[in-house]
Structures are given as C-alpha cells and as structure tokens.
TrEMBL record:
Belongs to the thioredoxin family. Signal peptide: none annotated. This is Thioredoxin. Residues 1-105 form the Thioredoxin domain. Gene3D superfamilies: Glutaredoxin. It comes from the Bacteria. Keywords: Disulfide bond, Electron transport, Redox-active center, Transport.
Length: 121
C-alpha cells in the first residue's frame, strides 16, 4: 500500500478507523527526511496490512504543533488510537523493520492499562 498524505482534514478519521498507523512527520527541505522517505515507502510496500501516513509539517503546521513535533523526520506509531512510539530521526530499514515488529508484538490491553494508570496517578 502506498503512503497516505495526512492532513488536518483526514488525520482523525484515518487514525480512528485503522488499528495500526505509522506516521512520518517530514518536510521537503529536510535532508534526513528525503533520505528516510524511500525507506518508509519501501516498508509500506512490505507491510500492506498497515497504514503508512506522511504529514508534511510545512503544509500541516497545526498537526505538527498538536503533536509537539520539533525535529523532523519524526516517526510516530499509533496502535488502536494510542501513540505507542514517537521519536525524531531517520531510521535505517533494519531498525524500522525491528520497530514495526516490536509494535506488532505489543499487548494493547497492557498498554491501555499502563496509560490509564499513568493518567490516574
């Protein structure tokens, strides 16, 4: 599956309708973003069951601000409407594959429990 362009108009719908979304916050002027782009795109072709979205931080400053994006590229993984990973920096393909595997292996019941405990604490 090709990557989806995420905008303030479609972001909530795509994240709420899909259980596993990888989001690349990027900008055209960013060298590391341009290096990471093909890695992200190739992963999207290998993992057709997942949604890969890209947020152009120049075109969508509200989304970048809403998530506190201060460095790009930033990769975020959202599983079942919970952000389970967010980190700036371009990843090499093997690291991205490892990260996808770790995110797939998460017990989301445990993650939700931890989030609820943190919010209550």
């Amino acid at each position: 599956m090709a990557t989806v362009e995420l905008t303030k108009d479609n972001f909530d719908q795509i994240v709420s309708e899909n259980d596993f979304v990888l989001i690349d916050f990027w900008a055209a002027w960013c060298g590391p973003c341009r290096q990471f782009g093909p890695v992200f795109e190739a992963a999207s072709e290998r993992h057709e069951d997942l949604v890969f979205g890209k947020v152009d931080t120049e075109a969508q400053p509200e989304l970048a601000a809403a998530f506190g994006i201060s460095s790009i590229p930033t990769l975020m993984i959202v599983r079942e409407k919970v952000a389970v990973f967010a980190q700036p920096g371009a990843l090499p393909a093997p690291a991205l594959e490892d990260l996808i595997g770790q995110a797939r292996a998460l017990d989301m019941d445990e993650v939700r429990k931890s989030v609820a405990e943190a919010e209550a604490g």
